[in-house]
Amino acid sequence: MADGNASSVDAGRWRDLDKLLLRPGHLVGQNFEPGAELRDDLQAYVKVLVVGAGGLGCELLKDLALSGFRNLEVIDMDRIEVSNLNRQFLFRLEDVGKPKAEVAALRVMERVSGVNIVPHFCRIEDKDIEFYSDFNIIALGLDSVEARSYINAVACSFLEYDSEDKPCEETIKPMVDGGTEGFKGHARVILPGITPCFECTIWLFPPQVKFPLCTLAETPRTAAHCIEYAHLIKWNEEHSGKPFDADNPEHMQWVYLQALKRAELFGISGVTYSFTQGVVKNIIPAIASTNAIISAACALEALKMATGCSKTLSNYLTYNGVEGLHTKVTEFVKDKDCLVCGPGIPIELDPSTTLQMFIDLLGEHPRLFLQKPSVAYRGKNLYMQAPPVLEEMTRSNLQLPLFELMDTVPKDVVHVTGMTKVNDRKTSCVRKLRVIFKGIRDGITDMDTSSTV
After folding, report:
1. Is residue 335 part of a domain?
2. 122 and 258 in a common domain
3. Which of 3, 180, 286, 445 could form a disulfide with 410 if both were Cys (CB 3.0 to 4.6 A apart)?
4. Percent of the chain whose pLDDT exceeds 90
């Protein structure tokens, strides 16, 4: 009797999912084959990485687990704060100070049987590119342009093109991206090489608000002015030569205290630690209901990608719940000259060009200006700027010709990670180059390498 009840409960658990996976339809994907084995494969083999365990990330983990995904991982560098508790529903007061990724993973596994979630409490840049290659789908629940841009570049780094510059389907790393701002939000599908990637539509994001330095220094009128004064002016005055790290709690606390002193001096109210974080890191306030709606859309798109039970969103959905309810789907066009998801910038090198000369060229290239780049090829580190132990291990490669360090196979991918400026801030990035070696065109079909920076 007990076994029968358990079987009945399990069957009822997947009732709604089975309606999508067990029946044919007119809107299904090209390779969709309905059947019980499709659900089994979804649960056994599909791996999804959730990037971010905040308001949107908590909802994503829950929705994906309840949609049949059992192999999940989540990465987030933040710890839980009291201010998170009003919308990040997986966290409790006793969790304050603990890593978001670890607590979120544990809470979902406690409530959804059979799911396995591996947490990673670290920066997204701390993982090498090969870490991201293990996942079938990457779901983004991030709150910054810089972080989205980095993950987008990593996913696009796996993309390869054939001799006719058409994307190779097996190298496409699908992504779903969600974002919220108050009562507004978006969900989008990114299929590198097919749909526009994040960088193709970077213009969708408005420029960051900038304050005149004279206002900050002489006549501050708002709490934001006081915070930016401490961040942009006071920090440099008292920490000459030391870069400010927005992810360092000690640095943020220092800015908060300096901003508070300045606000009191000018009779300005509203400076809090959380508001200081919001101004410095350009964090947008979030509302629980908006997160839930956008997460549901993203989870559904992930299910479509994994099973083909329906055609995916094409390709950008907007939601506006400020006054009533309004949703709209817009199809954006891929930028064929995109530095991230396109075939890449052609660059011609002499076969004698050393790895050091190649790295120097990356810093001088008019469309790149990369600082401190690291280079990897087919999972092998050719040169790494950090940590020191890897720099020492790979330093001898700098004097070797790049051509000798690579296999002479067309369209190989060289990964180059470096620093560039996004919204006037230095950030890690990935770019693509197509390296052609002079004199190697005939007989080897033009050495064509997609380089990631």
Report:
1. no
2. no
3. 445
4. 35
Q: Are residues 199 and 82 in the same domain?
A: yes
Pair 57, 74: CB distance under 8 Å: yes
Name the phi and psi angles at 343, rounded to 5.
-60, -25
By the 8 A CB rule, do 316 and 186 touch?
A: yes
Same domain, yes or no: 420 and 319: no
Q: Which of 156, 168, 214, 309 is catalytic?
A: 214
Same domain, 37 and 113: yes
Other CB atoms within 10 A of residue 262 CB: 21
Clarify whether residues 326 and 352 are in a common domain: no
Say yes or no: 407 and 321 in one domain: no
Q: Is the dihedral of CA 212, 216, 222, 223 positive or negative?
A: positive
**67 within a domain of the structure (yes/no):** yes
Q: What is the CATH number of the domain that holds 199?
A: 3.40.50.720
Same domain, 366 and 411: yes
User: What dihedral do alpha carbons 381, 385, 387, 390 form, nearest 10°?
Assistant: 40
Element (H, E) at 261: helix 249-265
H or E element that contains 61: helix 55-66
| Mean pLDDT for the stretch of residues 108-115 | 93
For residue 270, is it within any domain?
yes
pTM for the structure as a whole: 0.72
> What is the model's pLDDT at position 210?
62
Q: Are 229 and 105 in the same domain?
A: no
> Tokens in use for 124?
């997204």
> What pLDDT was estimated at residue 61?
96
Q: Which two tokens stand for residue 372?
A: 């401190």
Domain-embedded: residue 265: yes
Q: What is the pLDDT of residue 431?
A: 67
Q: What's the Cα-to-Cα distance from 43 to each of 40, 134, 169, 307, 369, rounded to whole Å? A: 5, 16, 23, 11, 44
- Chain-centroid distance of CA 132 in Å reads 10
How far apart are the C-alpha atoms of 269 and 110, rounded to whole Å?
43
Q: Which domain holds residue 257?
A: 213-281
91-95, 171-175, 243-247, 368-372: range with lowest mean pLDDT: 368-372
What are the CB-based long-range contacts (under 8 Å, 24+) for 13-18? Answer: 14/39, 14/68, 17/67, 17/68
298 is catalytic: no
The long-range contacts involving 219-223, CB below 8 angstroms and separated by at least 24 positions, are 220/262, 220/263, 220/266, 220/268, 221/268, 222/268, 222/270, 223/259, 223/263, 223/268, 223/269, 223/270, 223/271, 223/275, 223/279
